[in-house]
Amino acid sequence: MKPISLTRYLIEEQHAGRINADLRLLIEVVARACKSISIAIGKGALGGVLGDAGTGNIQGEAQKKLDVLSNDILLEANAWGGHLAGLASEEMDHSQPIPDAARRGNYLLLFDPLDGSSNIDVNISVGTIFSVLRCPDGVTTPGDEHFLQPGTTQVCAGYTTYGPSTMLVLTVGHGTHVFTLDREVGTFMMTRRDVQVPADTKEFAVNMSNQRFWEPPMQRYVADLLKGKEGPRSKDFNMRWVASMVADVHRIITRGGIFSYPLDEKCREKGGKLRLMYEANPMAFIIEQAGGAASTGRQRMLEVQPTGLHQRVPVFLGSRNEVAEAVRYHEQFDREG
Ligand code: AFP
């Protein structure tokens, strides 16, 4: 069967009453911006886009030229579309309302323009992550506080991976679907409908170099994974860590696994390493819609009430039985020490 385009999929969703025309057009604009980012990344050193921008973001992290460029592409594409009331980016201190009343819509867009950007210079997959919320009723000029909605209220989430091929993984709350960019035609084509993350897995993803800084339940959980067939889990586990969340999550979308960035002594003060609004929530929505699970280790991710735009959280997501297993270690520790 010939794959259908993203445009056709979105029109079919609109006809089925699952999205409205504004959300359809908003997703199209984001997808178009991602194609531009994909082209810029594809040029690599020849495009003069590699290396540091010489600036830092709100998180105090050094920005790459492509971080700044990707942020600008997404801002420019979405500012005049007419579907947004405001947008927020991992790279910007505060959210931005859409100033022009005539071109203002009812949605809020959040994005991490280039996730995994420290991998750019070594030609490893990076990506864009985005999340769409409704602007609260009666709010015409949204401020940061209007974005602080739990992940359960997301109406759409997606990510792209810029790798050997450029892929878009999308949910509007009715399953998770995978699209591959046909570079010659410039169109995203659906290559997997309704993906399902296997409930069980033998693969985990974590930055093992942080092991000594982890909390005791994480230490015990991973120690048991490493004992393999001879240990309490009675099976051998494999480990993978790309250090681009999009690439690690995409592997899990494709063949299952558990991804974790737990609390550790280095990031405890900040609440974790990964950002709730730009990374954890959109990925949690995508993974849950694919039959997987996402947790902080102590709470379902999508039910966390955000307290700040740049809030960080511990993350466990992927195959649902394995996420439940990791949560069990945390519950046991909180109960018995
Ligand atoms: P960068 O965008 O700064 O490269 O961070 C990527 C990331 O937020 C996420 O995509 C990775 O899973 C994680 O950080 C990697 O963290 P470590 O470098 O600590 O392994």
| Tally of strands | 17
Shape: globular
Question: Which cofactor or ligand species appear?
Answer: 1,6-di-O-phosphono-alpha-D-fructofuranose
Low-confidence stretches: none
Tell me which oligomeric state these chains represent.
single chain
Radius of gyration: 19 Å
- Number of helix segments? 8
Summed up:
By secondary structure, the protein is α+β, with helices and mostly antiparallel strands.
Structural commentary:
The protein has 337 residues and is of the alpha+beta class. The chain is built from eight helices and 17 strands. A hairpin with a 4-residue loop joins β8 and β9 (176-182). It has an eight-stranded mixed beta sheet with strand order 4-3-5-6-7-8-9-10, with helices on both faces. Strands 12-11-13-17-15 form a five-stranded mixed beta sheet, with helices on both faces. Strands 1-2 form a two-stranded antiparallel ribbon. It binds 1,6-di-O-phosphono-alpha-D-fructofuranose. 1,6-di-O-phosphono-alpha-D-fructofuranose is lined by residues 61, 115-118, 207, 243-245, 248, 274. 1,6-di-O-phosphono-alpha-D-fructofuranose (AFP) binds at residues 61, 115-118, 207, 243-245, 248, 274.
